[in-house]
């Protein structure tokens, strides 16, 4: 399944950007992750930009819908303590694996954990993305506080402004 979907895993830009050797390495990484050979996958990605590998792992998880990619992100967080892996875990749980019972709850846990480690715009936005879910994992007060923190960092952030307006309108009803 993985090799059949390789064209879907890499965007057109990625296919243009990477040479055949790099694409083969990335395919091997995907196969290693699917086979839960996390240490082998880690060895192959060691020299790849973490933002780039985050994007690639995200694409692989979306295409294959294999929970092994979540496992890999947790393995990498435990190994490196790099918050990028916590954010990837939260994103996978809230988008790719959202149909799994409890995925949103574990995802918001990871997002809160990331904010507790480093309160920056990216982490706050990831956490705020859990507001308004049917599971109601975040109360208005928490969302309002997070949105205000975001606006301190980015005064024109449309997401934070939208959430604050939504909260304001809901309290009027």
Description:
The protein is 73% helix and 0% strand. With 173 residues, it is an all-alpha fold. It contains eleven helices and no strands. The protein has helices spanning 6-9, 12-17, 20-34, 38-45, 50-64, 68-80, 83-96, 103-117, 121-128, 140-153, 158-172. Helix 3 packs antiparallel against helix 4 (38-45), helix 7 runs antiparallel to helix 8 (103-117) and helix 8 packs antiparallel against helix 9. The model has no long low-confidence stretch (mean pLDDT 90).
Compressed to H and E, one letter per element, the order equals HHHHHHHHHHH
What portion of residues is helical? over 70%
Stretches where pLDDT falls below 50 for ≥5 residues?
A: none
Shape assignment: elongated
> How does the major sheet shape up?
none
Write the layout of secondary structure elements.
Layout: H1 6-9, H2 12-17, H3 20-34, H4 38-45, H5 50-64, H6 68-80, H7 83-96, H8 103-117, H9 121-128, H10 140-153, H11 158-172
Helix pairs in contact: 3-4, 5-7, 6-7, 7-8, 8-9, 9-10, 10-11
């Amino acid at each position: 399944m993985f090799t059949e979907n390789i064209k879907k895993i890499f965007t057109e830009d990625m296919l243009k950007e990477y040479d055949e050797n790099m694409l083969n390495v990335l395919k091997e990484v995907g196969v290693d992750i699917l086979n839960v050979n996390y240490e082998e996958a880690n060895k192959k990605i060691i020299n790849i930009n973490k933002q780039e590998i985050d994007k690639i792992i995200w694409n692989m998880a979306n295409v294959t819908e294999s929970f092994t990619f979540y496992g890999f992100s947790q393995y990498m967080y435990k190994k490196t303590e790099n918050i990028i892996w916590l954010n990837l875990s939260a994103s996978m749980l809230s988008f790719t694996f959202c149909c799994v019972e409890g995925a949103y709850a574990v995802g918001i846990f990871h997002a809160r954990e990331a904010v507790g480690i480093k309160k920056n715009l990216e982490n706050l936005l990831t956490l705020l993305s859990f507001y308004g879910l049917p599971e109601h994992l975040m109360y208005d007060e928490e969302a309002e506080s997070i949105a205000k923190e975001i606006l301190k960092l980015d005064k024109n952030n449309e997401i934070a402004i939208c959430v604050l307006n939504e909260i304001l309108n809901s309290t009027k009803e």
